[in-house]
Amino acid sequence: MQLLGHNIGNNRRLFVIAGPCVLESERLALDVATALAAIAERLGILVIFKASFDKANRTSRASFRGPGLDAGLAILAKVRAETGLPVLTDVHEAWQVPPVAQMVDMLQTPAFLARQSDLIEAVGRSGRPVNIKKAQFMAPHDMAQVLDKAVRAAGAAGLDADRFLLCERGTSFGYNNLVNDMRGLAVMAATGAPIVFDATHSVQLPGGNGDRSGGDRRFVPLLSRAAVAAGVAGLFLETHPDPDRALSDGPNAWPLARLEPLLARLLALDHLVKQAHDGDPFFL
Asked: What are the boundaries of the signal sequence (predicted)?
């Protein structure tokens, strides 16, 4: 699959989606993106900058949601212009898709909205690559139907249908807890789509702190290694210069200063796995 000028796939070199959960300010976005661009150049990998213009699924009505559509897209445009990184953001409603698709390089559908047919079909018709997140309440094999909605919408619009990625971000297990069944990566890979593993939301504890979500970032490297060893195409890692002061998802965000060493180790593992298994990293 061609993604932003790069060959990506479950048997290709790992790529990364990274950035703060939400657009807190233009300055923070540019600082993080500049650091990510330098990491991408040193490691020789595709890095896509991610941040949300609106977090519509917050635990509390008092939680920070972001700058909104117009201001958020302006910040993302500046990030792309000043750092050269491609940018990704998520869309929550079908009407947002056309204006957002005009301004960003890649779209994302939030996990909670994986079953929203109008939204999935809208991103299918957008012409942009899309990272489609598996809902926390869905089985991995259910994502085949979600992918089918996007592919059929693209086909009906006369567009390339080979531009959808499926993303694992954990499955609800009891109250305020997520677990990862690594078998699900192989199940979703059987659709033929490139698979992305969301390492930071996978350690989230949704609503676990009462009026906000908790998380345990200690397990980000462990789960990332497991997913890379399975053979995923890409990793999703929210990162922040000071996660404990982040306005969204701080407990599960990975510190920006510690990102490059983590990625270097994961790239070494990725190379080993994909070289050893001759183009079939999931080797079922």
From this structure: none
